[in-house]
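**User:** Once you have settled down, spend some time on the protein underneath, comparing sequence with structure tokens, and judge whether sequence predicts the tokens.
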Amino acid sequence: MERPAAQISIPIGSTVTVTCKASGNPPPKISWAKDSDVVSVGQTWQMTVRARGQTGYYRCEASNGYTSDVAYFYLTVKSSLNSFLHIFPPLSFKIGSN
């Protein structure tokens, strides 16, 4: 799985796009969640940040029915447009067998 950045900081009004790639046999399905609520499905998740309440831990889960893996990241919502976006390098690995 190619994991998203471990920590993302972004100002209110900006759009964040996060990618989580996974491979396996059979091919895994990917879902995104904040807390216990699924917010999207698919390899890429995009959200326009509208409130500081969107700060928190998000997760990408890849599952192919035999095994699964989860990657977490923390999204910090900044209230100022003078804030920055800081992304750390991703990690990659595979689940399942090929």
User: Anything to note?
Assistant: Confidence is low (pLDDT under 50) at residues 91-95. The chain has no helices and seven strands. The chain has one domain: 7-78. The domain at 7-78 is CATH 2.60.40.10 (Immunoglobulin-like).
